[in-house]
Amino acid sequence: MYRSVIFATVVLSFGLDGLCAVLPGRANCAVKSQRKAWEDLTDGQKEAYINADLCLMKTPPIAGVPGAQNIWDELQYIHAAQSDYVHGVGAFLPFHRYFVTLHQTLLNTQCGYTGPLPYWDEPLNVGALDEATIFDPVLGFGGDGSGSSRCITDGPFVDTVLRVQENLSTSAYCISRGLNDRSFNSAAQTNVDRCLNMATFVDAWNCIEGNPHSAGHGGVNGVMVNTKLSPGDPIFYLHHGYVDKLWWDWEAKKLPARLTEVPKSRPSHFGILSNSTI
After folding, report:
1. What is the pLDDT of residue 19?
2. How far apart are CA 6 and CA 12, in angstroms?
3. 185 neighbors 95 (Cβ within 8 angstroms)
4. Dihedral, 43, 48, 50, 54 alpha carbons, nearest 10
5. 20 to 30 Å CA-CA from 81: which of 211, 228, 274, 275?
6. What is the DSSP letter of 212?
7. Which domain of life is it from (predicted)?
8. Is the pLDDT of residue 18 over 50?
9. Who's near 207: CB < 8 A, 6+ residues apart?
């Protein structure tokens, strides 16, 4: 099964024609992409990005994932299937950097999006999560959920149907949220600064995964708090765009050495996260 997930990931990234070319080694980066905080995008850029995500939710599947009805399902499946291997391990940051880039590639190749890749500048919203512009019902991702299911009730993704379950079966459910300021508090800039001042990759990664990363998932709650299924909420990609930025901010403090500073084996002090919750 794991090999089939890798195959699906490569197909989503490069298409079947590019499969053989990319497997033997890394592809070279020819053009640098631009990333911006969501708050710094123009209204037109925000609308274009949201429409591109909606496009992925309507685009037929291309990777042969069982039960998938669109590319959004396939992205969620790929994360769910590999979740146990990419959380609480040294691959956490590299995998999610690749996964965010995969999403960006699909926005471009399948839906024609050429604008900046946005991230959520989370410390700005500590203490007033419900006022964050990312939850705007028109030029954002909609707000909090309601009722026993906590389904979102406004915004462009209100009618989105998710399908992938934790066991990789498929059945329909909604994007749910339960905004929680208390859980989001660990996104504070003081915690971010502490992570960026760590001396080694292992310490920096443990700090980033344990605090800023967990804050974004726990603060949004609902689907986002599920380790396997969190990419169902489109906010996932802005949150992990921010997490990736933090890793880059740490790398940039000591270039080029930190670009390749990833442990080859699993350290003994894992266990930040369980397999069921972020």
Report:
1. 36
2. 10
3. no
4. 150
5. 211
6. I
7. Eukaryota
8. no
9. 191, 194, 195, 198
Which secondary structure element, helix H or strand E, spans residue 22, and what is its range? helix 19-22
Mean pLDDT for the chain? Answer: 87
Q: What does each C-alpha distance from 86 to 58, 163, 195, 256 come to in angstroms?
A: 28, 22, 20, 24
Spatial CA neighbour of 226 closest among 158, 161, 273, 170: 273
- % of the chain with per-residue pLDDT over 70: 83
Over 72-89, what HEC string results?
A: HHHHHHHHHHHHHHHCCC
The beta-strand segments (E) located in 135-205 are 145-146, 151-152, 162-164, 170-173
pLDDT at 29: 64
Neighbours of 13 (CB within 10 A): 18
Look up residue 226 and give its two tokens. Answer: 């599920």
* Phi and psi torsions of 194, nearest 5°: -60, -40
C-alpha distance across the termini of the chain, in Å: 24
- pLDDT, one tens digit per residue, over 107-120 is 999 999 999 999 99
Task: Record the pTM.
Answer: 0.87
Mean pLDDT of 142-150: 96
Instruction: With cut-offs at 50, 70 and 90, classify the pLDDT of residue 262.
Output: confident
Q: What are phi and psi of 170, to 5 degrees?
A: -130, 135
- Other beta carbons within 10 angstroms of residue 163's beta carbon come to 18
Say which residues have a Cβ less than 8 Å from residue 268's Cβ, sequence separation at least 6.
Answer: none
- Selected from 1.10.1280.10, 1.10.10.10, 1.20.1440.230, 3.90.580.10, the CATH number assigned to the domain covering 2-25+33-260 reads 1.10.1280.10
Q: Which residues of 117-128 are buried (b: 16+ CB within 10 A; e: fewer)?
A: bbbbbbbbbbee
